[in-house]
Amino acid sequence: MRTASSVMLGAWLAVVTPAFAEDLPDGTFASIPEGCAALKEKTPTELGDELDFYVLTKAGISADKQRCDFVQVTPQGEGRWLAEAFCDEDDYIYPDLFAIARTDKGGLAVTRLTDVTHQSGSETEGPAPFGEDDMNPVELDRDPAEGEDEFEPDVTEEPLPKPDGYDYFVLCPDVKP
Length: 177
Fold this sequence. Notes:
alpha+beta; eight-stranded antiparallel β-barrel; 8 strands
């Protein structure tokens, strides 16, 4: 009886597992509909500085001066994925995370968690390196009244800006290979 139950459970898992292990959809997606028209004529590389939108494929997301290669894509149910990426933007290299979901119209909704800590200083400069005090666990329990002002976070009322159309990608049916 146990053997039959185990075999039936194994057979059920073999049938159900592929439905949950769905890959990202094939094709090329653009962050703006006009991007599809541009991709009919030229590849993203050929567009160069004219690439003023984002392009998403199974391999990753690219734009004019940015490339994020997906290193692992994990299905999160039917039509939803979590993609870990390795990004390079103007020689600043960082990890990133994307939540991707299929939309009713055949496109993709994309939510991105980007490391924005490198925004201090120049745009091409990465985050400031950690100092000795930053790595000292004793400093975590330090009383702010001991000679330094209490930390006050920089709170901004406005949300961080998002490039227009970045969170929705349309399928481009005819693109240059």
